[in-house]
Amino acid sequence: xxxxxxxxxxxxxxxxxxxxxxxxxxxxxxxxxxxxxxxxxxxxxxxxxxxxxxxxxxxxxxxxxxxxxxxxxxxxxxxxxxxxxxxxxxxxxxxxxxxxxxxxxxxxxxxxxxxxxxxxxxxxxxxxxxxxxxxxxxxxxxxxxxxxxxxxxxxxxxxxxxxxxxxxxxxxxxxxxxxxxxxxxxxxxxxxxxxxxxxxxxxxxxxxxxxxxxxxxxxxxxxxxxxxxxxxxxxxxxxxxxxxxxxxxxxxxxxxxxxxxxxxxxxxxxxxxxxxxxxxxxxxxxxxxxxxxxxxxxxxxxxxxxxxxxxxxxxxxxxxxxxxxxxxxxxxxxxxxxxxxxxxxxxxxxxxxxxxxxxxxxxxxxxxxxxxxxxxxxxxxxxxxxxxxxxxxxxxxxxxxxxxxxxxxxxxxxxxxxxxxxxxxxxxxxxxxxxxxxxxxxxxxxxxxxxxxxxxxxxxxxxxxxxxxx
Length: 470
Description:
With 470 residues, the chain is α/β, with parallel strands linked by helices. The strands form two sheets. It has a nine-stranded mixed β-sheet. Strands 3-2-1-4-5-6 form a six-stranded parallel β-sheet, with helices on both faces. It has helices spanning 21-38, 54-67, 73-82, 93-103, 120-130, 148-161, 177-188, 218-222, 225-243, 254-265, 394-403, 413-423, 445-450; strands spanning 12-16, 44-48, 83-87, 109-113, 137-140, 167-169, 201-209, 274-279, 297-302, 314-319, 326-333, 351-357, 360-369, 377-387, 433-436. The two termini are 29 Å apart. Residues 464-470 have low confidence and may be disordered.
């Protein structure tokens, strides 16, 4: 399996939304990592409509690095020296004329749109009219569209301006080491392939739990909700890594080809197999509409219409104000066709567990004999590996790949469309909304959803330190 053909790297980085929250929390630390680890030495041009100066942008960047404990003075100084700034309205052609001037001799810029989705087409069109899109790559934040129709409309606009191979749709979850580890563990160990199918797998659960609430993102979250925020993108990508067929051939698109094939086989969600919830107190948050029916929790049952996964129930749940902050995958295996020792063994006995956050681990649940004369056992979990979170930040990895034209960890047009196709039937209040108490595992109706395929496996963590990141 190969990466994209060798291509000249980008010779400038332009990031729109330079004064925003995402730049402060993610982009500045990622840029420092590129300067420190990869010797990045190209112009980095921030663009925003904030009335700032270059010195204010540099102060903001320096404050971000201090907040994240990034104390490499030499790398920080080099990063600040690379920064440029253009202040102006995104609808004003003069803003893009000044940007073209700041780019100087750069002919292969990477334009990163850390702006609201409503501005993607506006900025893309303005880049094209100013000549700044020629030879450029475009990196776009999620959400890509608000539904399938708007995503397709945006794709049509951007494909007129940039070739598909130069459009990089971010899902930062794909840059996380443990998500990549799911794919690697499956295909680097031959022991899993014979049992990774409907003959041996009883069910699959994916849980993304957050112990914190919406915090200061009330307006954004109320327009988005849990389905659009994490299910349509992050968690369907995790499902694809978990269930796709092995990449074939030597083509650099092999991984994304198999991922697309898998997601196209996922049956569109049935509203009867969805539970939406909203935690008590959500509507008191600033920016949330009175009487809002936006979900802060969702649980769904999925089916994959393929020979490998036919009739295997797949459950995904995600929510805020739950007991812990953790993301975990549980693959439950079927019991043997006959209980040799006559025990009443739980149907959920035997599993493989992938912990994605906050720590990284893989565990295997097995049944072992208890000491003594009787042939009775108990369920235990063997820890196969346990690692600290990777030092390379997801955004550092994604920026580096986009600069070099490597698209493996980005959403392709057909993949994004397939993900919207799955969730389209349940968008916009198609199902009832249940109120749940903060600190619980969501509405009690989720137990009815999973039924005999349960119980839900609730992640546990040694210590909780919610930081508001997903």
